[in-house]
Amino acid sequence: MAATTPALSAAETRGFWKSLRGREALSFYLFIAPWTLGLLAFILGPIVASLVLGFTRYDVILPAAPRRRLPPRYHVILPAKWIGLENFQDLFADPLFRISLGNTVYIVLTAVPLGMVISFLIALLLNQKVRGMAAYRTGYFIPSIVPAVASAALWLYLLQPQWGLVNGFLDLFGIKGPTWLASTTWSKPSIIMLMVWASGGTMIIYLAGLQDIPETLYEAASIDGASWLRQLVHVTIPLMTPTIFFTLVMGIIGTFQVFSVVFVLTDGMGGPLNSTLVYLIYVYRNAFVFFRMGYASALSLILFLLILVLTLANVRFAGSWVYSEVEME
Amino acid sequence: MATETQVQPAPAVAGVQPRSLRGRSGLMAAFRHLILLPGVVFFVIPLVFMVSTSLKALRQIALFPPELIPNPVIWLNYPEVFHYAPMHLYFVNTLFLVVPAIFGAIFTSSLAAYAFARLRAPGKKLIFYILLSTMMVPAFVTMIPTYILFAKLRWVGGFKPLVIPYLMGSAFYVFLLRQFFLTIPRELEDAAFIDGSSRLRTFTGIIMPLAKPVLATVTIFAFMASWNEYMGPLIYLSNKKQYVLSLGLQVFTQVNRQEWGLLMAASSMMVAPVILLFFFAQKHFVTGITMSGLKG
To answer: Which residues of A touch B240 (CB under 8 A)?
Structure first.
């Protein structure tokens, strides 16, 4: 601070860097230097660029066809051209923009609450000193650490209409299973099923939250004669609202960005008939298949704004249902 | 609430409760298992069948009902996978991503985290706010601009875009490690300073050994993130010899769609190291998840 004010003479400035505080500041800058370099080059710079790119036409052309087979290092990037709001006008007239946004919202609205409710129920049951709790916990958690590409490959097999395990199971009840990923009706539920299967991380967060609730509260409630259900409604759930809120916010942010599993399940196409064309796959196709970088950037900006607004809205409305110890005092 | 309850005739309640509680809790426990057991089967059985199917010939896979334990066990799928996809190369290539990512998490990030936790400097607060806000920006926002940057640097088609940024650490790890460093008492370092130790020596000699548990957690984070990383390799790698496991497996699913035995063998090869690591470091997986939960 003192070092930067012009009132100081050069000698005094040199004095600051030699002083104990100056040397401390110097080590601070040196210690953060490698990380700061990465931050500027790969995060902050690109963030600023992303704000501009959406307003440009920025196409990449390949000097020779066929376009996909050529090593990308030979791409020619045309100079960016400022076109104002043209990308955004195109975007709102683009049916695939609406379809991909609709598909993503559909998946967010189903997979997030479903994953949360199931994780919460499992965590509740596991929190009650069940015998074999460690084994159960591991069993529920393990699918969530399976790499996305591998779990999608696995579900390709499970959902295979003829020999797949899912239809085999349904067959036990005399139900003829659908064709899942080949059906426009069942392709999205297939993805949702996979996502719920992999939601063990949420369960672990809930379990940790449940274990933080002081035992004394339950003792007091049961002395008051509160039933299991009333304890759940009046003690457990209110005290869990901060954790539920956190998983809700993170779940929405994460699910809007679903990409890898859908890419693997549909060979990168978002099919059949665009029924699983999620937003980031559409961004990817525009950026890296059609090489319309400006348009893809505009799409990215819209999604970022959407996530930002939803997160802020979530935080804004949190006060009405999220329990906070600070407010209680 | 607790003060009100003291008024109630507690002894009478206590006399009644134990018996009824025990009877009910026995029933409740049975009920819990009744829900938990089928549930856990639903979660685990797909993985069991991944391994089981990888040990079957196509003829056995088409059987209905499917065999849980293949009869006979066919190992042939595993060597056969290498016929279509050089998994050993993919494995080594994945390590090219994993090792720099762990380096970035442990060294670059913790160095910055230590500075944020301990050292005073003009502008520190502002830089910390920038750190916090970049943590909120999803990765897809920077994806296209960084691609253009790397294309201009002529890095596309090689490993550099997947290695160099990760060497520089990440805001999330810096934040996580800073939170931990703040809990280490300052006295430990002060003693070292009196002995004439430098900042860097104190950091490597005193702070880092104390931070082993959190460094293990961060290492697991970095390992999992780069082992699973798919979008980056998809965008930047074009030569089949450079593929990492995630990209290799995805291309494999596209090419050998109906060869379920081979596909499950290839998937098992990608999953096995993760499961193995999980059983060795279960505690760090769990603390990692709950720690990221603490942010909120």
So the answer is: none
Please give the residue that has the higher pLDDT: either A327 or A42. Answer: A42
On whether the CB atoms of residues A246 and B293 are closer than 8 A, the answer is yes
In this prediction, residue B5 carries a pLDDT of: 37
CA distance A203 to A117: 9
ipTM, two decimals, is 0.88
Q: How far apart are CA B130 and CA A311, in angstroms?
A: 18
Q: Which domains does chain B have, with CATH numbers?
A: 11-74 (no CATH), 78-294 (1.10.3720.10)
Instruction: With a cut of 60, say whether residue B294 has pLDDT above it.
Output: no
What H or E segment, with its residue span, contains residue A56?
strand A56-57
A28 to B120: CB separation less than 8 angstroms, yes or no? yes
A41 touches chain B (CB under 8 A): yes
Measured distance between the N- and C-terminal CA atoms of chain A, rounded to whole angstroms: 39
- pLDDT tens-digit map of A224-246: 888 888 999 999 999 999 999 99
Partner B contacted by A327 (CB < 8 A):
no
Chain B residues with CB under 8 Å of A45 CB are 145, 149
User: What is the distance between the terminal CA atoms of chain B, rounded to a whole angstrom?
Assistant: 28
Ordered structural domains, chain A, with CATH = 16-84 (no CATH), 88-328 (1.10.3720.10)
Peptide bond into B65 cis (omega under 30): yes
Distance from the A150 Cα atom to the nearest Cα atom in chain B, whole angstroms: 5
Min Cα distance A196 → chain B (Å) is 10
